[in-house]
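Record type: monomer structure entry
Structure origin: computed from sequence
Chain ID: A
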Amino acid sequence: MTIEEIEAEALKLDPKSRARLANKLLGSLENLSPEENDKLWAIEAARRDAEMQDDPKSRRSAGDVFRDARSELE
């Protein structure tokens, strides 16, 4: 069964069952070993780097990011 098939089946569940499944899946991510967590962050960093290399216009300065974040919190 592919991930797409699993997703399609999960979306057929009633809301209470979907919430229970989502909670279980999210909880499973909290139990990753430090090594697994580091590996996932390294993969994500590489993905983001490749995205920025492919589309230089998507880059934003840290100052802009922090300014926007602060304005969202106000």
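Annotation 1: The helical segments are 3-11, 15-30, 34-54, 62-73.
Annotation 2: The CA atoms of residues 52 and 60 lie 10 Å apart.
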